[in-house]
Amino acid sequence: MKIVVMRHGLTDYKQNYPVSIEDADDLQARGIPKIKSSALKMNGCFNHQPNIVSSPYGRTIHTAKIVADVLTIPHHYIVLNHELEEVRNFDFELLRVLTQGGIYRFKDESITINSRYTNPNYLPHTTYFNSDLTRQLPVSAKKRLPQELVEKIERMETCTEACQRLENVLQTLDKDSLVVTHQGLTQRLLEKMGYTHKQYVDRGEFIIVEASNRILKPLCWSEKY
Fold first, then answer.
1. Would the pLDDT of 198 be above 60?
2. What range defines the domain where residue 137 resides?
3. Which of 22, 44, 53, 93 is in the most buried spot, having the most CB atoms within 10 Å?
4. What is the pLDDT of residue 224?
5. Which phi and psi (to 5°) does residue 151 adopt?
6. Distance (Å, rounded) from C-alpha 129 to C-alpha 134?
7. If you average pLDDT over residues 7-27, what whole number do you get?
8. Number of domains in the chain
9. What is the crossing angle of helices 32-42 and 58-70, to 10°?
10. Which of 121, 155, 189 is the last residue of a domain?
């Protein structure tokens, strides 16, 4: 069984919340040709009409609709799955300040965060998050932050947790499928393929996965397909 895992196309992030299939319209026009090109590439992967499963955000559903049009699949076959959504309780501004230092607004207060304590190895924010360091704050950092803010940081879903949640969805599929999701899962699959020179799958690209007995084997991504 083949699963194509696709990262959504170039977006304006205007519908950064669950929307209906009919209302999804959140992609930039200049990114749509890439999605159509990817759809043509992936068409040969499937032996039968694939299921189309999408994260419930505007950018992913819009991507799924464009691919469905290229593959001549009616939109009512698109299924929304909330388990494919973005990292839960994620706060990019908080992550940025944890890694770079600065002022974070929290409950009408301005909290100064010194990255010397929260990010002693001076990691970029992507590496910091991918290493699950939001769940591993040093004691010296926790002592310098309000307890409620520490709890907010630790409630943020880690990269490992998010990717495991997304992989669980792939393991439940029972036929050839297209899954439209976000950066985290495509990045994890790329890492499993052993690619280290490229940090993430670009918007509108995809990875082909072979699935059997709940075992997922990434085969290639569209840049090499």
1. no
2. 92-155
3. 53
4. 67
5. -65, -40
6. 7
7. 93
8. 2
9. 50
10. 155
